[in-house]
Design brief:
With 433 residues, this protein is of the alpha/beta class. Helices cover 40% and strands 12% of the residues. Helix 8 packs across helix 16 and helix 16 packs antiparallel against helix 17.
Length: 433
């Protein structure tokens, strides 16, 4: 997933009180992670470990680097497309203290877990220029006020919609509320072009994406999964309203196959012309507008902020950061490579080629970029107001608990009230100090 950005002050404060008693390691230098940032030494070949590159552009960036650095070649190691699988493979490599992985492309929400477990090398702040980055993205690479990762791409969910069909239905503006979105679906369904069209889709399959959907639904209703005090906050009317909305929408407004669709499955469903509204990441924009015949909606859709109960909703902050494995060789080369990929020139080229959200703030206001990607102002605002997933050292256990309980609720296996009380009980020890 191109995933989710910011760690708001409220949630970050919860993360800072998490106990590190269970984390191994020491405070020595060398190959130990989580140590003070000294000189990163070693030059030579490295690997870049990342999820599957859907755009095909990453290899071109690597080729450019390799041409200019013949003695410091970079080899891509592509992991599975599903974030849960990526995380597991990176953890397996780290727990064996293997030097096979050099630079890691981390989901922003993994920073606390990887840093606390000393799987990452601390990065020297005085050797990395973060001044051009969106402030929200910088925070995602920090743990206990120390820098462990550099923002590479940001992300926030947006509403993709079939502008051509809304126009035909006499709807001049995209919906700002759920009620307006359902009303638009009903109007479009009466058109000849609207027969058999699915209304809306956000991911509800039992993966990391379900955690994101839960965050957005609950936050949009004024609740939160973890409260300002760092404790689970699922016993509130707001959390109940958010999960009830998600369950009802899955039953009444989503494709029948919704629980089997992942991020790419949702993209293909929208691009096939079978979906009116979709919650999706920015990366889809370029693919859905492709003129190679792979998209039936090219030039026929637009994007807008996510709707909510009474007005614009809350997006989840996503994205990816680049970090150096604590056990990697050639850390000096790895740092240079991170600076190369996160520099303004590389991010500009990546935006043009993939439509992935940059972390360099100026690109969102660049007239050339805005002309090419009209959604950039919407995305910049979404990132600035987005909410993170729960920040936790035991993030893997936390997200697994969320996925299990929310999935049971949205599929009707468990009543919403019980699913929330079960999740409250599961998260309490996982977030305890």
């Amino acid at each position: 997933m191109r995933r989710i950005p910011l760690i708001g002050g409220t949630v970050l404060s919860a993360a800072l009180v998490l106990s590190l008693a269970a984390c191994g390691g020491d405070e020595k230098g060398g190959t130990e992670g989580g140590t003070s940032a000294g000189a990163l030494r070693g030059r030579g070949p490295i690997t870049f470990v990342t999820g599957k590159d859907r755009s095909g552009y990453l290899q071109k960036q690597i080729d450019n680097w390799n041409t200019e650095h013949p003695k410091e070649q970079v080899r891509i190691i592509e992991l599975p497309d599903e974030p849960n699988d990526q995380r597991q493979q990176m953890i397996q490599n780290a727990t064996t203290r293997s030097d096979a992985y050099s630079v890691l492309n981390l989901d922003v929400v993994w920073t606390a877990e990887f840093a606390a477990n000393r799987w990452l090398a601390e990065l020297p702040k005085d050797q990395i220029d973060l001044s051009k980055m969106l402030p929200a993205t910088i925070t995602t690479g920090q743990y206990r006020n120390r820098l462990f990762a550099v923002p590479s791409t940001s992300d926030a969910g947006m509403l993709y919609y079939r502008k051509d069909l809304l126009d035909k239905a006499g709807i001049s503006t995209p919906p700002k509320t759920y009620a307006e979105m359902w009303d638009a679906c009903d109007k479009v369904a009466k058109l000849p072009e609207g027969k058999g069209l699915d209304c809306w889709f956000t991911e509800v399959n039992k993966t990391e994406s379900l955690t994101i959907s839960a965050v957005e639904a609950i936050e949009s209703h004024g609740g939160s999964i973890v409260g300002p005090d760092g404790r689970p906050a699922l016993n509130t009317p707001q959390a109940k309203a958010g999960l009830e909305f998600l369950a009802k929408a899955k039953a009444e407004r989503m494709p029948k196959e919704a629980v089997t669709l992942d991020t790419e499955g949702g993209r293909r469903h929208f691009q096939s012309g079978k979906l009116l509204f979709q919650r999706q990441w920015p990366y889809q924009y370029a693919l859905a507008n492709s003129g190679d015949g792979s998209s039936k909606v090219a030039g026929r859709f637009a994007v807008a902020p996510l709707p909510g109960p009474t007005g614009p909703g809350v997006a989840n902050l996503g994205g990816h950061n680049l970090a150096i494995s604590a056990f990697a060789k050639n850390k000096a080369t790895s740092l240079d490579f991170i600076r190369y990929l996160t520099g303004e020139q590389s991010q500009r080229a990546n935006l043009l080629a993939t439509s992935q959200a940059p972390t360099v703030a100026a690109l969102y206001d660049d007239p050339e970029m805005v002309k090419r990607f009209p959604y950039l102002p919407v995305l910049k605002a979404a990132i600035g107001n987005a909410r993170p997933r729960p920040v936790a050292v035991k993030y893997g256990d936390v997200t697994a608990a969320i996925q299990g309980s929310v999935y049971d609720a949205v599929t009707g296996k468990t009543p919403v009230d019980r699913a929330l009380s079960d999740l409250q009980a599961k998260l309490t020890p996982l977030t305890a100090q």
